[in-house]
User: What shape does this take?
Amino acid sequence: MSEVTTVAQAVGRERLVLAARGFVPTGEPVVSDTSRRGESILEAPYRLEREGRLAVDISVTALRMKQDAPVAFLTFRPSGRLQSEPIHAWCGQGQQFDLILSWRDAIVCMVETTEGKAKLVTPELYPASWWDVRALSDAGSHNETDRVEVLPAQTPTEFKLVISNLRVRNDGLTIRSQIVGPSLKADKTESGVTYHRTIPATDGRYSLNYDGLRLTLSPSEDTSRLDVTSERFMPPAEMTFQADQQEVATEQATEDTPVAAGVGATPYVIGALRFDPTNMTAQSGVIGRNGMLVTGRAEYALTGRLTKTLHMTSSFLKETAEVGTAMHQLEVIRRTSFGTLTANRIWCGPIGPGTIFSGKPRNKCIHYGAKGFLEANWPSSSPSWLATSDRMDMPYGGFEAKDFEIEISETPDMAPLDIGIKLHRVTADAAIIRFIATKDGEEAMVYQVTAPFAEGLATVPLWSHQLVLTRSGNGVTAELTNDGDGTTPVLWNMTN
Assistant: This one.
């Protein structure tokens, strides 16, 4: 067992979840001698690691927070993404202008966006209070305003962790963990960060670790009462989260929950293909709508083969993909409404039986679906030989995928494809171009870029090269130059 795992188990899940949510213990826990159903087993005092009060008022059309409003610093990451940049926010007591044309108390978050700016939003879910926000609603452009200063809190807000005896059954002891803190309404409290878990019995007793303290819980003969003893086997853990590390955990968080790294585009990769500008050729003359600006070849960026039989099941069907089936990885990078980036990388390939119409397998991608498990689903607008989107045709109807294991190949397992950059159309102020892949006469759109004109020129970065488009009537001329600075067209396209 690794040292990290040993420490995590000694600290305990409850302590880890609260640390991930930005809570810090302020004293020793109090352990009950006995605990009946619904009664506490352990209580411990906590505070927020980072909290403060607004220096001045802040408001947008329908949301506002007043000076001195208490706020908690929280960090969010979009769900379902392999990598994501953190979204930092100060969440606190505010007001929202509702449909009956009046201001009502609400939880409001000041989300840090560009330098000196912020967006005011409300929580996406229904948190217990301003310190329990777990997800943010999308932000519109009308919600942006100047960021205001947050002053340190003069007196830390008091919270209490309560671990309770929920029930004892044949499958074990189910405990409920929750943090109790202030409500939006004065002189009231709310319970948040609540989740349940079941502890199996060992030799007729239950064991629970909390921050270096081992609790042994022995049920009475009729299981109506737990006798509790405790011993400290490790000093309390020193766990704090810096501003750029703290991450909001979900109620499913465990000791081995991974922390997502920063996001970055793979050099020379768009979607599932690796482009080589040195093997691309610009076409001559004035090129009109749907004309090809650049032609060349591209390889699959990353491929691999299944090392186990992949089992895919739905309510009515069962499918398999055999060992050795070749698949390719799709990379999709997006920008959130708060300006942060997400990167999703999933494996796709022609897995499963052929369709009724062609007899050929359709492309399926392996990803975590809406129901939370690994599933195989059909990527939208994708041919069988290339996945171009991580949007799925059946977002709630994929196949549950089991035994998915893949070995990455040192060189691509699939042949290179013909590629091109096509002029989709010219508008009054920009050229819209599309990266196209072709196989056996079938085209697939890999990516679309909007290139704004400046004095009749539009320049698209292509890593080591640049594509320079010169406006000519309703068309353009194209020149491929080798003076690029490494900028990827995907990230560049998001900033225009």
